[in-house]
């Protein structure tokens, strides 16, 4: 039987061939040259059935539909395994929207510009680290180092070197941790700060810290029993080195340094989130290993801020919830058909006592950000999901603009579902907290380093 070159299964065969040969993104044309030539339209890179959920499912699902246990089988192959379980067993609903063809809506503008300007200049040195033009005295100068990633290491590097894709990010986060019965067991309020010292959009090195990658802190502002608890991670540029981890607990009234393996434990009681989970890149790249691209193909993901961001609809950007035993387990989310995701796996080779056996990370080839991560325990059993939503802060009611007057972009919500214990932590990126801390995406003239990102700052915040 003669196989037509562009029949309905052409994309599937193309993706299988790419995994086998290590080719880059795109089916009908290479993705990133298409983006460089016409960033507002990627339709030339993919056939229609990868940009239309209605065509992909042969009319079974269309934009405006809601995925429930009654129709989820039509999109089972587009969901990672824990999301599928959530729909089938826990009453999760997923709203379907039209696929986005405009890549500029999947980035903050400065980071996309930096990616296109520096494409091809990232080189892996003999030490395994990523250098500009191969010069081991020059840390990566910004943007995605490998926008057209062809292996698991490159894909992980895109996630790790600049988590939030801003030089400084500060997130106000209410967190709800639910018991197996679906009732909220813990509610926390926290502030998460990220300052890149290298790999910056402005092309500078912060205060001469060439040997560092980032400074990242988290401190809790509520409830009273965890208020004042704070943690600081100091990341080295050398991805073979473990971050220095400091913590402050008000009960002990001192800052102490923690061992590296505590990156695989909850920060405070009740939550299912580990430091290692952050951005699917919570540990240095070279402390994990056995990177491997497992699969390429389409997937459903929450990547549209127009629908998922609640700016203008709620004063703090809060979102409605549903599902689980008490109707409180999942945020209402809107997902689209992503034409190509990269699924890669990795193992924590630098952590002999890590409870994680491996992780599988799903990455959107259009912006190299992850719609989901699934971790497995050391026995190989499926364990935890880390699912975020992303998007520009722009909808039909409000928008948040960057310094250049363009819509800003970031994460919007996260689900961290431990299916072995039945516990879920969900958290929102909100406008601000009752404590007065607000989300922002630049330093705005504030001395954030001394205020939030030193060991003495941890003690001061705790007291």
TrEMBL record:
Keyword terms: Signal
Claim: Signal is one of the keywords in the record: yes
Pfam family, one: DUF1329
InterPro entries in UniProt: DUF1329, TAT_signal, TAT_signal_bac_arc
Taxonomy, superkingdom: Bacteria
Protein name, entry field: Secreted protein
Organism from which the protein derives: Panacagrimonas perspica
Lineage: Bacteria, Pseudomonadati, Pseudomonadota, Gammaproteobacteria, Nevskiales
């Amino acid at each position: 039987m003669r196989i037509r070159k562009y029949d309905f299964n052409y994309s599937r065969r193309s993706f299988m061939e790419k995994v086998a040969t290590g080719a880059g993104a795109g089916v009908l044309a290479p993705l990133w040259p298409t983006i460089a030539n016409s960033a507002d339209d990627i339709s030339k890179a993919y056939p229609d059935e990868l940009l239309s959920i209605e065509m992909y499912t042969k009319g079974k699902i269309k934009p405006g539909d809601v995925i429930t246990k009654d129709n989820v089988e039509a999109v089972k192959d587009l969901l990672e395994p824990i999301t599928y379980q959530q729909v089938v067993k826990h009453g999760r609903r997923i709203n379907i929207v039209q696929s986005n063809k405009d890549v500029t809506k999947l980035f903050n503008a400065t980071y996309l510009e930096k990616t296109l300007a520096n494409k091809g200049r990232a080189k892996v040195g003999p030490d395994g680290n990523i250098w500009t033009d191969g010069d081991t005295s020059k840390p990566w100068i910004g943007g995605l180092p490998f926008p057209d990633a062809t292996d698991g290491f490159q894909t992980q590097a895109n996630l790790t070197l600049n988590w939030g894709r801003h030089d400084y990010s500060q997130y106000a986060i209410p967190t709800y941790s639910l018991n197996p019965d679906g009732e909220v067991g813990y509610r926390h309020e926290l502030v998460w700060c990220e300052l890149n010292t290298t790999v910056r959009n402005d092309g500078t090195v912060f205060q001469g810290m060439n040997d560092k990658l980032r400074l990242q802190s988290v401190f809790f502002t509520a409830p009273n029993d965890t208020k004042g608890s704070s943690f600081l991670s100091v990341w080295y540029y050398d991805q073979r080195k473990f971050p220095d981890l400091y913590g402050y607990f008000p009960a002990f009234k001192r800052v102490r340094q923690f061992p590296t393996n505590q990156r695989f434990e909850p920060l405070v009681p009740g939550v299912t989130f580990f430091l290692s989970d952050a951005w699917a890149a919570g540990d240095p790249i070279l402390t994990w290993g056995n990177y491997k691209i497992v699969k390429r193909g389409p997937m459903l993901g929450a990547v549209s801020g127009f629908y998922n961001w609640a700016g203008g609809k709620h004063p703090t950007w809060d979102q409605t919830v549903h599902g689980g035993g008490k109707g409180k387990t999942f945020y209402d989310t809107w997902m689209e058909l992503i034409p190509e995701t990269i699924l890669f796996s990795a193992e924590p080779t630098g952590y002999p006592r890590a409870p994680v056996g491996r992780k599988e990370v799903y990455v959107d080839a259009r912006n190299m950000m992850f719609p989901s991560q699934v971790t497995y325990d050391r026995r190989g059993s499926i364990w935890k999901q880390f699912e975020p939503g992303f998007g520009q802060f722009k909808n039909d009611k409000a928008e948040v603009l960057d310094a250049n007057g363009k819509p800003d972009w970031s994460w919007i919500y996260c689900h961290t579902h431990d299916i072995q214990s039945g516990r879920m932590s969900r958290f929102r990126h909100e406008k601000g907290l009752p404590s007065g801390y607000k989300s922002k995406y630049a330093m705005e003239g504030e001395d954030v380093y001394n205020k939030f990102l030193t060991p003495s700052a941890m003690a001061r915040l705790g007291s």
